[in-house]
Amino acid sequence: MFYREAGDFKTSYRDDGQTFPIKLDRWGYYAILAVAFLVVPFVIDSYWANAVLVPFLIYAIAAIGLNILTGYAGQVSLGTGGFMAVGAYAVYKLMVAFPGVPIVIHIVLAGAITAVVGMLFGLPSLRIKGFYLAVATLAAQFFLVWLFNKVPWFYNYSASGQINAPERTILGWAVTGPATTASAKYLICLSFAVLLAWVARNLTRGSVGRKWMAIRDMDIAAEIIGVNPLTAKLSAFAVSSFFVGIAGALLFSVYLGAAEASEAFGINKSFLVLFMIIIGGLGSIFGSFAGAAFLVLLPVFLKNVLVAQLGWPTDLAAHIELMIVGALIVFFLIVEPHGLARLWALTKEKLRLWPFPH
Amino acid sequence: MKLKLATVALGAVMAAAPAMADLVVPNLSYRTGPYGANGTQYADGFNDYFTLLNERDGGIGGERIRTPECETAYNTEKGVECYESTKGSGALVYNPLSTGITYQLIPKVAADKIPLYTPGYGRTSAKNGKVFEWVFNAPANYWDGASVAVKYLLDQNGGSLEGKKIALVYHNSAYGKEPIRTLQELGKKHGFTLTELPVDPPGQEQKSQWLQIRRDKPDYVLMWGWGVMNQTAIQEAANIRFPMENFIGTYWSGSEVDVKPVGAGANGYKALTFHGVGMDYPIYEDMKKHVIDPGKASQGGQFVGSVLYSRGMYAAVVIAEAIAKAQELAGTPQITAAQLRDGFEALDITPERLAELGLPDFGPEIKMTCDNHGGSGMARLQQWDASAGKWTLITDFTQPDQDVLDPLILEDSEAYAKEAGISPRC
User: Fold this and answer.
1) Taking a C-beta distance cutoff of 8 angstroms, is the pair B417, B425 a contact?
2) Most confident segment among A49-53, A352-356, B16-20
3) Which of A256, B102, B116, B426 is an S-S bond match for B122, by CB 3.0 to 4.6 Å?
4) CB–CB of B177 and A160 under 8 A?
5) Which of B14, B103, B108 has the CB atom closest to A178's CB atom?
6) Domain B142-277+380-406 listed as CATH 3.30.420.40
7) What angle (nearest 5°) sits at the alpha carbon of residue B96, between those of residues B91 and B101?
8) Whole-structure pTM value
9) Residue A106 and residue A85: Cα distance in Å, rounded?
10) Does a cis peptide bond (omega within 30 degrees of 0) precede residue B202?
C-alpha cells in the first residue's frame, strides 16, 4: 500500500531501463535532491556541515570509487588512503602553483592525476588476484604516504610537513580556507557527490560496467567472450582512483583545510572506506552512500547521545561507542551478508507487496 | 530513509544541548588510543584547577567556569568535530594538546575570533603575534626547547659541541618535524652533526632506528616523541645500553608514564620541562581541601602531582589569569572570546603572582605583548630517579638562543602570512 504501482506501465525499453523504474521511488529521489539542494543550504550550520554532512558526502564519493574497483570489477584494494593522499597533495600543489585557475578545475585535475597513479599501481592486477593483489595495493598505500612525508617538494618545504589549503572562491563564494561558510562547503561537496554518483551509476550499467562485472564474475570466461582484461582492469583502476582522488582533494581542501599524509591518509582510512562498502553493499551505488552514512554518522550520533544526553565520561563513551559500532557491524553482516543495500532492497520488496504478501 | 531518520534523531539531540551563561573553556582531551595514557593526566590537571577555582573562589570574578570535555583521540577529524560542536556554546579559548589539531584550528580560530592557547606545542612561529593574532604559545615552544637542550649540552661539554654527533628520534608528524630546522641551524652554529631518525606514528616499532643508533654511536640522542612512542624508545635505549644521561626528551617525552614501564633501566633519563613537578607546592593544600577530599577531582585524582597533571594545571592557571586580566580590561565579568584575546595579550604573570597562586617558582615569568605571543621561552631540565620514582629538576630556567630562533620564527611566520594573505599588525 506504500507503493501504488497500478497504472505505472513501461512502454519503451528506455523507460524500463531507468535507474528508478518505480514512480514513487523516482519522486522520492527528486524530493531528496530538491531538499538537499534547495532547503538544506539555507538551514545548515557549521556543526552540521563540518561534523556530519561534509564528511558523509566526501566519504560517499570515496566509497563509490572503491566500490567501482572492488564491488563492480572485483579487484580488492587496500590503497584507498594512499590514493586519497595523491588527490590531496595534487590539489594542494595545483592550488598553490596556479592560484588564478578555478578550484573546481583543480579538484577534477587532482582526480585525473590520481587516476594515472592508480593505473600505475593497477598494473600488477593483470598478473595477480585476490589476496595477492590486496597486498600489492597495500604497498601502494605505504609507499605513497612515505613519499609525501619524505619528499619536501610535495609540501612546499614547510617546516612541519603540513599542507594548508589557501582560500579559493567560486563565483565570489569562498569554498576553501577559513572564511568558507557552512553552506558553501556543503554545496560543493554535494554537487560533486551527486554528479559523480550519476556518472558512476551510468558507467556501471553501460558496456564498461558490464565488462567490469564480467571480469569480476569469471575473468577467463570474460576473456573468451571478448572482454579485454587489460583495458577492463585498468579502466576500473583509473575510474576508481579518479573518484577516490576527488574525495581526497575535497577532504583536504574543503573539509580539513590542513593535513599531513600519515595522520589523515593512513592505513586506517583505507580500512574505513573498505568497511563502508562491505557494510553498505558491494556493487551498489546506494550501498556506498549507506555505508558512508553508517560509519560517519553513527559515531557522531552515539557520542552525542552518550556524552551530551546521558552525561557519561568521554573516555567511557569513546570505548562504548567503538563496541557498539563493532557489534552493529557484526550484527548487520550476520543478518544480511550483502550489506545495507541488500537489506534495503528486501525491505522495499516487502513494502511493495504489503499488506498482501504471497 | 535511514539517513533521514538518523538526522532527525541527531537534530533532536543537538537541539537539547544546554546553553548556560558561564565562562566556557572546552577541554578537547583524549583519554583513549595510543596517546590516551598521556592525554588523560593532562586533562585531569586542566579540569581540577578550574574545579578548584569554582569551589574555592566561586569561579573567576564571580563567574563560574565550565569545562565541557570532548574526546578527540588525538585525531584531527575528531578534533574538528569537537571544535565545531563546542564553539557554539560560547567557548572562550581552545587548548587541544595536539599539534595536528592546532594546525587545523589556526585558520579557523582566526575566522571565528576565538583564542587558541598552545603551551609548549602547536605551531612554533605562532609566537609572532603580528601574524598569528589569535594564537598564544607561551611560556615555551618547540624551538625554545631544542635550543635549551643544545645549550645544556654546551654546558656539559665546556662550551663546545664541535665534532659531536647528535641524533634526533622524532615522531614522523608535524609535531616531530618541528624542531628539525632549528637543530640544523644550531648544528651549523656549534659544529655538531645531526642525524634525523623518523619513527612512524604511533611508534611501537623502533628497532631499526635504535639499531642505527647502536651502529653510529651518537654522543647524544634527543627525542621528540609522544604517547607509546616514548616508552618504546626509552626501552630500546635501555636495551642497547645507551647511556641514559645522554638521552634527552622534549617536554612531551618526560612524564611518569614514559619511564615507569622501563623500570630501573630508565634511571638517569633527562627531559625538558617548563614548569615544576611534584606536590611540594602550597596550592595542593587547597586542592586537597576543596577538590580531592570532597571527591570532586577529575577521575578521582589518581594522577595529582604528576608531570602531565602539573602541565594541564599550568595551562589552566595561565588561561585563568588571562580571563581575570580580560575581565579587568573589559570591566565586566562576562567576557567574550575577543576580550579574552586582549587579556592574553596584556598578560603578565610575575614570580610574585605565581607565589600568590600557591605555585612559587613553578614556571617562568610570562609576559605577552602584541608582537610576542610566546613569552620568554625559558625551559629547564629534569632527570628521572628510578629508585625514588620521581623527577628531579637539574637546571634553572634557561634562556634559549634567540639570535638563532628569532630569524627562523620571522621567516616561517612570514611564509604563512603570505600563503594566508595576512598583513602583519602591531
Assistant:
1) no
2) A49-53
3) B102
4) yes
5) B108
6) no
7) 110
8) 0.90
9) 15
10) yes
Note whether A161 contacts B10, CB cutoff 8 Å.
no
Name which of B9, B103, B200 is nearest A162 (Cβ-Cβ).
Answer: B103
Question: Of B210, B227, B244, nearest to B385 (Cα)?
Answer: B244
**Chain mean pLDDT for chain B:** 91
Q: Which residues on chain A are in Cβ contact (under 8 Å) with B84?
A: 46-47, 50-51
The partner residues of A50 in beta bridges, in order of sequence, read: none
Domain ranges within chain B, ordered by starting residue = 2-141+281-377, 142-277+380-406
A162 touches chain B (CB under 8 A): yes
Domain B2-141+281-377 classification at class level: alpha beta
pLDDT of residue A210: 95
CA dist B381 and B255 (Å) reads 12
Chain B interface includes A340 (CB < 8 A)? yes
> Which of B67, B108, B128 should be substituted to probe chain A, the one whose Cβ sees the most A Cβ atoms within 10 Å?
B108
Q: Do B31 and A315 touch (CB under 8 A)?
A: yes
What residues of chain A lie within 8 A of the CB of B110, using their CB? 178
Cα atoms in the Cβ-side hemisphere of radius 13 Å centred on A77: 40
pLDDT digits (tens, 9 = 90+) for A276-326: 999 999 999 999 999 999 999 999 999 889 888 888 888 899 899 889 989
B55-98 residue pLDDT tens: 999 999 999 999 999 999 999 889 989 999 899 888 999 999 99
Sequence spans of domains, chain A: 1-6+19-43, 44-267
Identify from A314, A319, A321, A348 which residue to disrupt to test chain B contact, counting B C-beta atoms within 10 A and taking the largest count: A314
pLDDT band at B21 (very low <50, low <70, confident <90, very high): low
* B380 to A125, B140, B409: CA distances (angstroms): 56, 10, 21
Given CB atoms, is A181 within the 8 Å cutoff of chain B? Answer: no
